Automatic annotation (TrEMBL):
Annotated organism of origin: Nocardioides oleivorans
Keyword set, alphabetical order: Nucleotidyltransferase, Transferase
GO molecular function: cytidylyltransferase activity
Stored InterPro entries: IspD/TarI, Nucleotide-diphossugar_trans
Organism superkingdom: Bacteria
One Pfam family matching this protein: IspD
UniProt protein name: 2-C-methyl-D-erythritol 4-phosphate cytidylyltransferase
């Protein structure tokens, strides 16, 4: 499946530059995108961050075009893009290249349908009315949006023709935009593809990643228990 990809950093403040394993969050996401095999890779940034990101991307050796503001959209319009668009959120830094590729190639089977990745909701969710906690909402009907999203090729083509830019700065708004423009399929994401929203969640993600790596390195006994002699 031919695809153009955009890494969405704009509108996210300084969090994409937070350190994860001694590298900015967004560079983890960008490297995964590059390794997933897309045809063209754009980075959408705020104007104030443009020069910094250009330097860091060049230093990282990743082939990507950094564009400020709506520049990424202008590039797609100028190129007359006909492929699907893979949108990756810089705040989901550990979504792997394999998962990004899985979402993209899965979407190829239904080219008229856009796609959104999600994680199951595990926290208890309550209703609140007039500052009073009410009943519990069934978590089975809830999902937490993560990354990536795929804008189906026909949906993208129509949007380019109308100059109706999808709101990639906010994945909740992007989900609503996609649903307003056609059918959307959901793809369950692995745990490490979760989104971070502050420094503490970055620290938690780093700890979870370290733990999962440690578990994978542990020898497994005949009984199947990690590390059992």
């Amino acid at each position: 499946m031919s695809a153009t990809a955009v890494l969405a950093m704009a509108g996210r403040g300084g969090l994409p530059f937070a350190s994860l394993h001694r590298a900015p969050l967004y560079l983890h996401a960008l490297r995964s995108l590059a390794a997933s095999g897309v045809d063209r890779l754009l980075v959408a940034v705020d104007a104030a961050d443009h020069d910094r990101v250009v330097r860091e991307v060049r230093h990282a050796g990743v082939a990507a075009e950094v564009r400020a503001g709506a520049g990424w959209w202008d590039e797609l319009r100028a190129a007359g893009t006909t492929s699907a668009l893979l949108v990756h959120d810089a705040l989901c830094p550990l979504a792997s290249a394999e998962f990004l590729r899985e979402v993209r190639t899965g979407a190829a089977a239904t080219p008229e349908v856009s796609a959104l990745a999600f994680r199951p909701v595990t926290d208890t969710v309550k209703t609140v009315v007039d500052a009073r906690i009410g009943g519990t909402i069934d978590r089975e009907g809830l999902a937490a949006l993560v990354s990536p999203a795929v804008v189906a090729a026909p949906v993208l083509a129509a949007a380019l023709e109308r100059d109706a830019r999808p709101p990639i700065d906010d994945f909740a708004r992007l989900a609503a935009w996609l649903r307003a423009h056609g059918e959307v399929g959901l793809v369950r994401a692995p745990s490490l593809a979760r989104r971070v929203d502050d420094a503490s969640s970055v620290n938690l993600l780093e700890c979870v990643d370290e733990l999962s790596r440690r578990v994978r390195r542990e020898p497994v006994s005949d009984a199947g228990a990690p590390g059992t002699p």
